[in-house]
């Protein structure tokens, strides 16, 4: 299983990325700031790093430089900064690519009978909201993100 490290401090974006990547069979780790990302990268040796340049504790370019000091892992920069003067230093520091936020991922699963919006944490059936407890919602998330796969009781109990 490929491992992805997401260094991003926006919890909603992290959640959407984790859900989408796990649904595609990636292992995902998340760090809300640069220092944690560097520690997790050293400990877990991810196959790719997705890095927000706006991590709160240090400059994202410094995170790239620190990673490049010891690894050649591909680094995809995620940034709300669209200007090229922001992109060039990141790419010069060793980033492999740059994606400008917002970008889209599949966060809505729709069928003829129901719709599940993973980002908004909302389920509807026949156009009406379905009320779910936090536990029910978590189980629904796991199941809709695993289409065609058998999820055992043990796997459900091990989910965090």
Report on this structure:
- The chain is of the alpha/beta class and 160 residues long.
- The chain has helices at 11-23, 34-44, 60-68, 84-93, 134-144, 153-158, and strands spanning 3-7, 27-31, 48-52, 75-79, 97-100, 108-110, 114-117, 122-125, 128-129.
- The strands form two sheets. A five-stranded parallel beta sheet has the order 2-1-3-4-5, with helices on both faces.
- The model has no long low-confidence stretch (mean pLDDT 87).
Write the layout of secondary structure elements.
Layout: E1 3-7, H1 11-23, E2 27-31, H2 34-44, E3 48-52, H3 60-68, E4 75-79, H4 84-93, E5 97-100, E6 108-110, E7 114-117, E8 122-125, E9 128-129, H5 134-144, H6 153-158
Parallel strand pairs: 1-2, 1-3, 3-4, 4-5
Antiparallel strand pairs: 6-7, 7-8, 8-9
Helix pairs in contact: 2-3
What's the pLDDT, averaged over the residues? Answer: 87
Number of helices: 6
The side-by-side strand order for the widest beta sheet comes to 2-1-3-4-5
Multimeric organization: single chain
What would you call the shape? elongated
Q: Summarize the amount of helix as a percent range.
A: 25-40%
Helix vs. strand class: alpha/beta
Intertermini distance:
19 Å
Major β-sheet annotation: 5 strands, parallel
Low-confidence stretches: none
| Residue fraction in strands | 15-25%
Q: What is the C-alpha radius of gyration, as a whole number of Å?
A: 18 Å
């Amino acid at each position: 299983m490929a491992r992805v490290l997401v260094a991003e401090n926006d919890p909603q974006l992290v959640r959407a990325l984790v859900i989408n990547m796990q649904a595609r069979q990636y292992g995902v780790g998340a760090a809300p700031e640069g220092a944690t990302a560097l520690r997790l990268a050293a400990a877990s040796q991810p196959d790719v790093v997705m890095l927000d340049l706006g991590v709160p504790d240090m400059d994202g370019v410094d995170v790239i430089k620190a990673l490049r000091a010891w690894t050649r892992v591909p680094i995809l920069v995620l940034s709300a900064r669209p200007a090229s003067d922001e992109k060039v230093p990141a790419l010069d520091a060793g980033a492999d690519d740059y994606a400008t936020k917002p970008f889209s991922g599949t966060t809505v699963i729709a069928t003829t009978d129901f719709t599940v919006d993973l980002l908004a944490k909302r389920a509807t059936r026949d156009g009406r909201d379905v009320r779910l407890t936090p536990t029910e919602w978590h189980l629904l998330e796991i199941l809709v993100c695993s289409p065609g796969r058998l999820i055992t009781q043990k796997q459900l109990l091990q989910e965090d």
